[in-house]
Description:
Elements: H1 27-34, E1 38-42, E2 48-51, E3 54-55, E4 58-59, E5 72-77, E6 80-86, E7 94-95, H2 97-100, H3 106-124, E8 135-138, E9 143-146, E10 152-153, E11 158-166, E12 171-176, E13 188-191, H4 198-210, E14 214-225, E15 230-239, E16 254-259, H5 260-269, H6 288-298
Parallel strand pairs: 1-6, 11-15
Antiparallel strand pairs: 1-4, 2-3, 2-7, 5-6, 8-9, 9-10, 11-12, 11-13, 12-16, 14-15
Helix pairs in contact: 5-6
Amino acid sequence: MVAFRLNEIPLLSRSALGRAEELRSDTEALRAGWAESLLLRVNRRGQVRVRDDSLVFSDATELGLEPEPGAVFLGVREDRHVWTVRVPALTGELADLRALGGVLDDADAGLLTSALAMLNWHDSAGFSALDGAVSVPTMSGWSRISTSTGHEEFPRTDPAIICLVHDDGDRVLLARQPTWPPRRYSLLAGFVEAGESLEACVAREIKEEVGLDVRDVRYLGSQPWPFPRSVMIGFAAVGDPDVSFTFSDGEIAEARWFSRDEVRSALELGDWASDGDAPLLLPGSISIARGIIESWVQSAATS
């Protein structure tokens, strides 16, 4: 079997932020630190203000004299508390995580990824899943409680697998969703079901999407994916390229086996945003799919 591993930490898995979980319920400490706190404002489109490839923060006191109930405490950076809040609109130079993920430093990347994941959860968690009553933020934004029963709910993260299927040689399976334009391909992926192991999910999703049985499922790494609030768990597996594809669940429009040389050429051309008539376009740098594909291509030199 051609063994390989991720050569680099996925871009959105980087973080140099101290989350300071012990402060989330320490109301007095958070109030004391509020006057010097940094505030990251995020608009409804997930955009933030940027300058010179860095996040632009404002003073938290612009919201008031003490922590705002709708703000989320992200952690501590250079001895200053950092909070985030959703705002209707922003002005100035704006960008989102998809555009910024490859240029932000570890501290900013970790902050923005966490901010989006938390704010996206709050946007959809305004009512208790248990009793249907309005819920309100507590624990400095890290949980919500029902205004009817006091039932507490915590941030939801949806686990999803993403898998590079290869033939134990020089070919890799890539696929295209129906909504994607021609020539845009990526790895197969899908959400983990209740009561299912990650490895079982890999086998099920690939079978459902392209009709292929896989073996030698191996874990590679993971990455938060706050679009809106997932974590992508990367795997590699081996499949038989002589098996005909069947697209039973409608999630895949086209799947093909590509040679290592074809994939290498596509990586050199750029990503999905590249111009021209390239026969194969691959995901951008912030996706763990890109890192997995690059690592597989480079593994030929060491195998």
